[in-house]
Amino acid sequence: MKRFLLFVMVLVGLLTLAACGGSESTAALITVENVRANLTLPTDTGSFWMVITNNSDTDDALLGATVDGCGVIELHDMMMENDVMVMRPVAGGQIPIPAGQTVELKPGGLHVMCLQKAAPLELGTKVTIELEFANAGTITVEGEVVEPVMGGMNND
Ligand SMILES: [Cu+2]
Questions:
Q1: CA-closest candidate to residue 57, choices 24, 101, 94, 26
Q2: What is the CATH number of the domain that holds 104?
């Protein structure tokens, strides 16, 4: 009976190991997914959208970003004002990513704003964006240059 119990315990241990080994073993504090770059228009601005998840139990915040070809980067939100959609820098200059929460940067809402864009980028190409978080530090991700969304008014 003791032998059998020991066997079961070893088996459970092995299964647990296997389960952990199958996924990302180093649990990232922050995961950034679905990074899209709206940079194709022949203007000197553009924007980035992405889905940011805080996997930790500590509140975090996106403080800023660096991208080659963007002279200045600001964190913006969009809102209706007198029936007009306007965008402006987020309060406090940062986007809070609360513990255990997912925050979506998307057309018509929060976005990373590229100002003083050096040149338009081609549809389908990749662009590297270095994100700076208050707690998780610097996270570098790749985004795909997508179809432009005029004025960022579309919601999908
Ligand atoms: Cu903006």
A1: 101
A2: 2.60.40.1890
